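User: Can you predict the 3D structure for this chain?
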Amino acid sequence: MAWSKNAGLDVLGRKAWRLSEVADRLDDITLRAWVRHGGTEELVQDATLAALLPPGYWVGLLRERGWLVPGTVLLSGTVAMRSGVDQFADAWRVELHDPATGDTIGLAYEVDRLPEPIG
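Assistant: Here is the predicted structure, written as structure tokens:
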């Protein structure tokens, strides 16, 4: 996992919610992700944000270290993947859904695999 985090770029969508606008219902927001192999898409993650450390934890840590400045974007962990799903896919699609408002933030991207090591 550590290797893949270093080898792969972080991907951001074009939309975000202000933490102050969703903080009281974060545990109800769902995160779903699908992988695509060829023309077949398969659900690989399905959880609420309650599965992650709360943003308040990270905000406190950033503030303590002097790194919390206006415009900060927090990238925090991931939820468990479904057993038996091959995460090394041709493409990913991810959604955050707020059931209180019906609003959904989504993004999709294709993956360029690194070549096999030589030797």
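The chain has a mean pLDDT of 89. The longest strand covers residues 40-48.
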